[in-house]
């Protein structure tokens, strides 16, 4: 017997089905092979550990949901004000779509928090299971794709400006945005097709129900590791290394290069730190399903206790993105201060707080400067966005 591995006493195969329900909160970790867990009969798992993990997961989901909604709503306010006044730049268009994906993503967290609080029993019905699971995965892929596109756009904008003067990428970026949404939908297609509510050990669980055999799930997990982490991480790293190299070769002041280096390091490390633990555990699951590593006690404990925490860490990326990609921008910070001061300060002669419209992204001076020396002076502002 395994003693209450996820809060209830049951046999090891049933413990493992509950483990899969835990992993279903991150919908790429579920398997249908009951008999592969029979070597774990001697596990003695304290129920308190699972309860504590579930409490922590619910608390983190609530915190990420609140901060993510607030941060991305702030981005919406600033960006829509900018877009209503003039044509948005390519980076601003990508930032706006990134905020859309992160906003939709955090909207699913109350459902996963409720499921976690109910010991991973799904109370919302079959249709909501498919909708919430699909929205979660589509926006997970879309968020990563837009982060990657912003890195590429940043590199192209700076190198193009240094060599040939400022260029507009608006039309091309709109096609890129549409293509990225299509790619996210295609990447999430298995989730749209196979997500369902299934009764496992007397519990109704929202999970991915693939056809029999581990190969489908292994391929699904491998797709997530490659498409949502390794390839984007490689592209971001290459683009930022080339960007830093270009700036160091052309910048005349070392301080500028060090400032860009710090900003770029924060961006890349945040993506890596948030997603690497979850992706590493996912890849471990791929190796186990392909029988390249042994299913043992360590695997059980990592997927029971560490995996849900890695999901929480990955989800925090959705509330970090507004900070990293907007609040690091000097012009954004300036307009934020301007907004709050104007809202708090009374209008002259009225005693009433002024309600001056915000203009967060006025045309960047880079777009009005055509000499190499002047353009170089504002590269920091461009690359910090």
From TrEMBL:
Sorted UniProt keywords: Disulfide bond, G-protein coupled receptor, Glycoprotein, Membrane, Receptor, Transducer, Transmembrane, Transmembrane helix
Annotated TM spans: 53-79, 91-111, 131-152, 173-197, 225-243, 264-285, 305-328
Record membrane topology: Multi-pass membrane protein
One GO biological process term: cell chemotaxis
Coiled coil stretches, renumbered: none
Pfam families in the record: 7tm_1 (PF00001)
Protein name stated in the entry: Relaxin family peptide receptor 3.3b
Organism encoding this protein: Oryzias melastigma (Marine medaka)
Source species taxonomy: Eukaryota, Metazoa, Chordata, Craniata, Vertebrata
